[in-house]
Amino acid sequence: MREVDKSGCLALVVCSALPGLHAWSGCDTVSALASQGKIKALKLVQANDLYLQAFTDLGSSWNVPTDVFNSIQAFTCQLYARNTKIVGANSLRYHMFCAKKGQIESGQLPPCEDSLMQHTLRANYQAAIWRRSLENLPDVPAPSAGHGWELDDGGSLKIRWMAGLPAPDVVLNLISCTCRRTCRPSDCSCILNGLKCTVVCKLQGCSNMVQDDAIVAQDANDSDGDSDD
């Protein structure tokens, strides 16, 4: 790749990576990673042939090859910790969290591997459309067909932030919000994280409250037992 650099054509190679990098670092259809700007990402890509090739390949097909995602995962780690040797997003999250003794905002941590994959799928989908912009009637799959989006109950398209659970149930049961009057999507930490409010939340009985089917069933049985014959 650096032979291209010596011939003075590195700029052309970088240009071929720009559609993938622009989509991945944030555009109209793909969100950006918190506090990670495009200039920082571009400089990192220009300095590393592996990252340059990964973003050149992003969007070349409708799927994200494993080697491309692995390179982008290592790239993400260096975005958040420039001199790190860690190449796994989950591992870097853990080490950064421990280094700060838990005193770190979630936006300062890299996305977990699951979320990063969904983000990369969305960027790949958008870059693939751009790369086919000169084709006559390109065959474009539905964004909800494994490309980082999904359909809600009403059939509307929404972002698929993760393929799995954000945390084990035993951890999710400890998460709580401090809403006083109502739980709104704009400021309720539970709703913002796609979670239901629980009994440890400050406000009880909100519209986002989790419904324990076992308790509801037990209450119904108790009511039946107390009724007059």
From TrEMBL:
- What species does this protein belong to? Chionoecetes opilio
> Signal peptide: which range, if any?
1-23
Respond yes or no to whether keyword Signal is given for this record: yes
Q: Which UniProt keywords are given for this protein, alphabetically ordered?
A: Signal
Q: What is this protein called?
A: Tesmin/TSO1-like CXC domain-containing protein
Q: Which domain of life is it from?
A: Eukaryota
